[in-house]
Amino acid sequence: MKSQSTRHPISLSLPEKYTESMAYEEGAIKTSSRRKFLSGAASAVAASVVSTASVNASPLKVQPSSMTMGRPTVPTGYGMPSKYEEGVTRNRSDVFVNKQNFSDWSMSPIQHQKGIITPNGLMFERHHAGIPDIRPDQHELAIHGMVEQPTLYTMDNLMRYPSVSRFHFMECSGNGLTDWLTPVSTTVQQTHGLLSCSQWTGVPVSTLLDEVGLKAGAKWLLFEGADGSAHARSIPIEKALDDALLVFASGGEMLRPENGYPLRAFMPGWEGNTSVKWLRRIKVSDKPWHLRSETARYTDPMPEGKWRQFSMEMEAKSVITNPSGGMQLQGPGRYELQGFAWSGRGSISSVDVTTDGGKTWRTAELEGPVMDKCLSRFTYSWDWDGGPAKIASRAVDSTGYVQPTVEQLAKDRAIVGFVQHHNGIFPWAVSASGEVSNAIA
Ligand SMILES: Nc1nc2c(c(=O)[nH]1)N[C@H]1C(S)=C(S)[C@@H](COP(=O)(O)O)O[C@H]1N2
Ligand SMILES: [Mo]
Fold it and tell me: CA 259, 176, 107, 434: dihedral to nearest 10 degrees?
């Protein structure tokens, strides 16, 4: 063992004859954050990060997979994840017992999400009347109301307009609604999994509004879906002209049926229900409609029995996904805390992490690219001493808004029942035996 002290434990003690594969290993670990992660720790701590068998035996074991042909390439077909990843699925909430699957939702397994992009097959779903089966060659979008030239677009028409691709998160305003005051959910999938992030491709709403010509006094737009719920929302004209999109693709392919195929609205940074799926019409008016979705639903109880309407912007939020509820730490040592932060008002400017229940906060590493109204990934190296701990993250966005505690939110909101817009700081408890659990309380 010579001159190896700063190497990753995995690359230690390889026999001389394997210097080539060792060089390859080194190349893979020479990233600045990896070096930082290791250099902060004494070598004893570094060695405890990953338990490695020493690789003294020569020759190095050859895996059976190297000695046979692999399975043949499938000539045509859609690729699937490794069978060893079959536990990574979106799941319905286990908090509510839902007796039907029409007004339902499934949550994204964000504890397994490796980067800021959610794979299409793992994006959360929320629908009020099931998933319609819409033929793209029969789908039409109407734009009417206070416009000069009411127009009907086919999908073929729409695909010929100039399109843009943008990275944004999508979050249901009901995300976290079961866990305001008591720890009801076990995993981060259940507490925060009504959240996805993708690269969305479509035509800016402003392009089509320019074309149809807004009449003087136009102020609000109705977006309505072609599903059984005819889900609809009133959207202010400023948002429509700013960054609203008519999206037909996410993650480089046409939308999945459950996410609005063949066409949906996308309102960057706004609560998910404003991004109307299976979009069939946009009607222009001088006032909002005050639909069921903006009176009986998607309103927030306020003190003194008042209700807040049109709270569509998603405020800054973050959560630690690793470790998170249901996980088990393997004894004291160094852990890399990981999580996501996002804001519907802009980009994330910093994330703080606490490991002592909020007494002290440290700045986490924010991984780039940090984009507008998009998930940002953060990491923080933590030396767990083996005692009980309480870990949490706190996001700050580009407007200076600081993610509040639930107590702070409760000062000007009425937290009664299943309230929407829970963007409070969310703690996980780590017990002395390494169990991680929901610590909201
Ligand atoms: N037409 C239609 N659009 C809809 C809905 C719906 O039920 N019907 N659900 C809304 C809600 S509440 C959310 S959170 C988002 C979820 O989008 P996703 O299923 O693609 O994740 O779609 C919104 N758009
Ligand atoms: Mo939602």
Answer: 150
